[in-house]
């Protein structure tokens, strides 16, 4: 995905995804500005250590025998190909309009996988390939879309080698190694560099559409390791072979600058998801849906009405039952004003399937309507 910015190198999420719009979810192209967060940093919560009952070894940067460099289309190289990496998995997804690819980290030997939410967002099927090259189906057990974290469960996971986590504060100048499914090619690559900054903030805004939606990630670790598309959700290792971050974004042209979510933050969210407790932006279980396909743009009618514009409705879904049609614009849900796709998805994130909510919309002719609907279960992650 190309992300263009006038004064800085573009930054892109690292999952390999098609330009597709999922039901009740939009995966736009983003242009990203980068700035340092305030110097005062918050204390990172402790996280329970991953289960190492499989008895497998923890990967260290020197373990991976490479087979040469592969050139990537986004200004860097995929990295040095490796046969496998204990505690690291490849993730392939089926989404509306195509397929996606990313990487994951094994937290527990029974098949609990940590990754970025954007790797699995909008997917209808998830396949995970472990370090033994065995394929598994997976489900999303919970996620935090605001912090771009998701936890997966393999349907038949057992005796997987887990990754070892280092939740200490990353230090500028430390050597790091990233591993991921570079370019979504179905193989793992490794690339090394140093930590160039900590506590960084990136703000992502949709490009190539009329949308003004933005998404911000804070407290990130910055590295000059040549991480590219497909590394999303994979580990950033320190020199001891312990995971210090989850790769999540990088510049789309050379010189590559990469960003990772500190593992302390990611593991804390993962622990909460595994406990089954929802709070704030952490969601457990399937998403609520109204049964529409939405445009990433914001449409304004002559009356000045703006909101989330509907491209299509799902047969038998809540929207269709309420009489909402393609071309309509949703303006309010559950008393919350909707002026963008982000407003719509954020509102739905606060509800569960089965909730009864009010919804207001303006149809294609400009006529306003209001109804009460019962939210359904999303068919996509």
Spatial strand sequence of the major β-sheet = 13-14-15-18-17-16
Shape label:
elongated
Say how many strands there are: 27
Q: State the separation between the terminal residues, measured CA to CA.
A: 20 Å
CATH structural fold name of the largest domain = Thrombin, subunit H
- Please give the count of helices: 4
Unreliable spans: 1-10, 17-75, 205-213, 300-304
The helix/strand class is: mainly beta
What count of structural domains? 2
Can you identify the CATH class of the largest domain? Mainly Beta
State the helical fraction. under 10%
**Beta strand %:** 35-45%
Report the radius of gyration as a whole number of Å: 21 Å
- Compute the average pLDDT: 79
The assigned CATH architecture of the largest domain is: Beta Barrel
Largest sheet: 6 strands, antiparallel, barrel
Keywords:
381 residues, mainly beta, Thrombin, subunit H, Pdz3 Domain, 2 domains, six-stranded antiparallel barrel, 8% helix, 43% strand
Structure, explained:
This protein is mostly beta strands. The protein folds into two domains: 11-39 and 48-282, Beta Barrel (Thrombin, subunit H); 286-377, Roll (Pdz3 Domain), CATH 2.30.42. It contains four helices and 27 strands. The protein has helices at residues 117-120, 263-275, 318-322, 341-349; strands at 11-13, 21-22, 25-26, 29-36, 69-71, 77-82, 88-95, 98-108, 112-115, 123-129, 135-144, 149-154, 175-180, 188-207, 214-223, 235-237, 243-251, 258-262, 282-284, 288-289, 292-298, 308-313, 329-333, 336-337, 356-362, 368-374, 376-377. Strand 17 and strand 18 form a beta hairpin. 50% of the residues are buried.
């Amino acid at each position: 995905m190309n992300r263009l910015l006038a004064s800085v190198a573009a930054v892109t999420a690292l999952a390999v995804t098609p330009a597709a719009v999922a039901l009740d979810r939009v995966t736009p192209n983003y242009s990203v500005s980068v700035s340092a967060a305030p110097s005062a940093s918050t204390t990172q919560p402790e996280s329970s250590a991953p289960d190492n009952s499989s008895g497998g070894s923890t990967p260290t940067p020197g373990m991976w025998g490479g087979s040469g460099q592969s050139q990537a289309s986004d200004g860097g190289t995929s990295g040095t190909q490796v046969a496998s990496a204990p505690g690291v998995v490849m993730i392939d997804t089926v989404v509306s309009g195509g397929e996606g690819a990313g990487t994951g980290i094994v937290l527990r030997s029974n098949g609990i996988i940590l990754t970025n939410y954007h790797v699995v967002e909008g997917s209808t099927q998830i396949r995970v390939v472990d370090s033994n090259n065995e394929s598994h189906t997976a489900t999303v057990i919970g996620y935090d879309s605001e912090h771009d974290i998701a936890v997966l469960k393999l349907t038949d996971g057992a005796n997987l080698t887990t990754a070892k986590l280092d939740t200490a504060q990353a230090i500028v100048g430390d050597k790091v190694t990233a591993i991921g499914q570079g370019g979504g090619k179905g193989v793992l690559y490794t690339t090394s560099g140093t930590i160039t900054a900590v506590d960084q903030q990136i703000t992502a805004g949709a490009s190539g559409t009329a949308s003004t939606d933005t998404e911000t990630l804070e407290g990130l670790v910055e590295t000059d390791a040549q991480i590219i598309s497909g590394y999303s959700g994979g580990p950033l290792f320190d020199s001891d072979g312990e995971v210090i971050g989850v790769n999540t974004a990088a510049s789309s042209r050379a010189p590559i600058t990469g960003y990772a979510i500190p593992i302390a933050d990611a593991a804390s969210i993962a622990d909460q998801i595994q406990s089954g407790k929802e709070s704030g932006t952490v969601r457990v279980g399937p998403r609520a849906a109204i049964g529409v396909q939405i445009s990433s743009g914001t449409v304004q009618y002559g009356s000045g009405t703006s909101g989330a514009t509907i491209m299509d409705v799902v047969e038998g879904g809540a929207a269709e039952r309420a009489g909402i049609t393609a071309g309509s614009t949703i303006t309010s849900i559950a008393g919350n004003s909707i002026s963008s796709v982000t407003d719509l998805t954020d509102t739905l994130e606060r509800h569960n399937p089965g909730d009864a909510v009010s919804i207001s919309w303006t149809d294609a002719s400009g006529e306003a309507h209001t109804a009460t609907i019962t939210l359904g279960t999303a068919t996509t992650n």
